[in-house]
């Protein structure tokens, strides 16, 4: 297994959009030359990571690479760890349909959802590094670069692993390796899955000791978030017998799974209200930004982004990755999809055509009827039911998302 930080290994980790994003040049020769320069930099024993870009996302500090050298070195560290330690990241598109099917068939059991509190920030870096140094399959250079990362100015004074960097998810999976084994061995649990800090257990009976058992399994520094713990009890007929949302609904990986409370009720998979509200906020923010700058093409770009589907990159290893209104919500019931996306279409139309209220009074003089029709021709329902695809450049995606930094 090649763990070298070489031009060849960096080339294998190249993604669509990288040449433009990191100014690697145009054409294969220019790109290889840039990657060769990164190889030279990382071979220097004094190699240090540059200052990372920072932003606050959902109340948490998130770091992103500001240079090509940092990004490709971090990708190679993650690649080396993944291969040497046989670590595979959870795939939400594999987890979600499996969870939905099991939930639909559930009878005489309990489903428990737990959240690990302050997940990345609570991981003990010192303990992690000690364990990694004992792994014979991980190269000394890889260990050295991880230590360099932990000692960089922006990280050494903060707790845990930095969110946003490609290597952090792999390191966190390694940190939880024994926890994973323990969860899979719980005698009353017949199915267990975890995506980052969200763990889900399908159990025979009430599994009354599950919370204390999990707390014992958690590694140093990690605890459960009691406020985000959910337990659904399902009887032999597959119903909860409860009318309250907390006792019959579970949100997992962007989906709301609602169990029937009576035999007449349906099992439904929808989008959590919080997520619907987030989309509405982004529509409103896009409109308000247009009121401020009157840049019509930017408004259309943002509405297209919200209502369509698009490529988000990929790599030579993983192929093309997609995102958007269909790909982010592809497993919801048809009935739920129709209701929710019609609601979002109506929300957009009311904002655009309104001539009253704080937005309507300011917007009415800034749009003509042709522009209103053009905006409302973009549909959430159409974008989901017959997936509409758009092409966005990386710069456009960044500009579109920029105004939604806190939404």
From TrEMBL:
Highest taxon of the lineage: Bacteria
Entry-linked InterPro entries: DNA/RNA_pol_sf, GrpII_Intron_Splice-Mob/Def, RT_dom
Domain Reverse transcriptase, first and last residues per copy: 1-257
CDD domains in the record: RT_Bac_retron_I
Entry similarity comment: Belongs to the bacterial reverse transcriptase family.
Protein name as catalogued: Reverse transcriptase domain-containing protein
């Amino acid at each position: 297994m090649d763990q070298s930080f070489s031009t060849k290994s960096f080339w294998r980790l190249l993604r669509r959009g990288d040449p433009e994003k990191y100014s690697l040049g145009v054409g294969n020769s220019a790109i290889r030359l840039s990657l060769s320069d990164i190889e030279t930099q990382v071979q220097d024993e004094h190699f240090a990571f540059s200052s990372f870009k920072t932003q606050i996302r959902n109340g948490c500090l998130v770091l992103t690479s500001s240079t090509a050298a940092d990004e490709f070195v971090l990708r190679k560290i993650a690649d080396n760890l993944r291969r040497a330690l046989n670590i595979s990241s959870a795939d939400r598109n594999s987890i979600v349909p499996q969870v939905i099917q099991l939930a639909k068939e559930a009878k005489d059991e309990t489903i428990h959802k737990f959240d690990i509190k302050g997940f990345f920030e609570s991981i003990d870096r010192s303990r992690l590094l000690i364990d990694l140094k004992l792994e014979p399959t991980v190269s000394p250079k890889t260990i050295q670069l991880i230590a360099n990362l932990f000692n960089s100015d922006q990280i050494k004074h903060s707790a845990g692993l930095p969110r946003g960097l490609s290597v952090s998810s792999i390191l966190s999976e390694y940190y939880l390796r024994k926890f994973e084994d323990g969860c899979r061995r719980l005698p009353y649990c017949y199915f267990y899955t975890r995506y980052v800090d969200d763990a889900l257990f399908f159990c025979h009976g009430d599994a009354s000791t599950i919370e204390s058992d999990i707390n014992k399994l958690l590694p140093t520094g990690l605890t459960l978030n009691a406020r985000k713990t959910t337990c659904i009890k399902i009887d032999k007929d597959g119903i909860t017998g409860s009318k309250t949302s907390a006792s019959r609904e579970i949100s997992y990986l962007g989906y709301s799974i609602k169990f029937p409370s009576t035999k007449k009720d349906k099992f439904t998979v929808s989008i959590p209200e919080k997520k619907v509200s987030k989309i509405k906020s982004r529509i409103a923010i896009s409109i308000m930004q247009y009121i401020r700058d009157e840049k019509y093409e930017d408004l259309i770009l943002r509405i297209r982004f919200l209502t369509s589907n698009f490529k988000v990159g990929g790599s030579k290893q993983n192929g093309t990755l997609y995102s958007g209104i269909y790909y982010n919500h592809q497993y919801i019931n048809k009935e739920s999809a129709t209701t929710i996306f019609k609601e979002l279409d109506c929300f957009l139309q009311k904002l655009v055509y309104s001539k009253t209220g704080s937005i309507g009074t300011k917007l009415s003089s800034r749009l003509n009827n042709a522009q209103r029709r053009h905006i409302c021709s973009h549909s959430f329902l159409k974008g989901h039911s017959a997936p509409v695809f758009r092409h966005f450049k990386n710069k456009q995606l960044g500009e579109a998302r920029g105004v939604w930094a806190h939404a």
